[in-house]
Fold this sequence. Notes:
Low-confidence stretches: none
Radius of gyration: 15 Å
Bound molecules: fe (ii) ion
Number of helices: 9
Strand content: under 5%
CATH topology: Hypothetical protein af1432
Oligomer: single chain
Order of helices and strands: HHHHHHHHH
Number of domains: 1
Mean pLDDT: 92
Number of strands: 0
Amino acid sequence: MLHRIKQFYWDITSEFKDIDIKFIDKYLNNLEKELFKNLNKAEQHHCIRVAKLAIKEYLKLEEVNDLDMLIKICLLHDIGKIGSRLNIFDRVFLVLGDKVTGGNLKKCTNIRKINIYYNHPQIGAQKLKSLGYDDEFIYIIENHHKKDIKDNIVINILKLCDDKN
Ligand SMILES: [Fe+2]
Ligand SMILES: [Fe+2]
């Protein structure tokens, strides 16, 4: 609950905070930067927070050897939300609606915002596939909300950092 309040606060303040362009420039190529800029501002801040936390987590581990790739994945993990126009009220509605309906809200895939909320991992994976990203990269994006996948260290770091942000 406290975490949700924190997210809500981050959402409302995100419009007034500058995007850390230096950080983006360091880890994304031009095409990726264009993609990233199409996320709404709250999502951009979210992805940057996830990536920065992942750097801290990475330093505790030895299993991941490509930090740059990990950061790129974190920055692009929600790329399937491009064009969603999910605003803060939509997000509150979706989070509460999911709880109240016991997850049945996800069946309403004919409603664009609901579809993107639940299926952005698949939508993002498709987008990256069409841009020629490798299978491992796509696999991680596609499964970043799957609870039953526990044996992929990058997914585990991404999930951990995503949940905290
Ligand atoms: Fe996500
Ligand atoms: Fe996320």
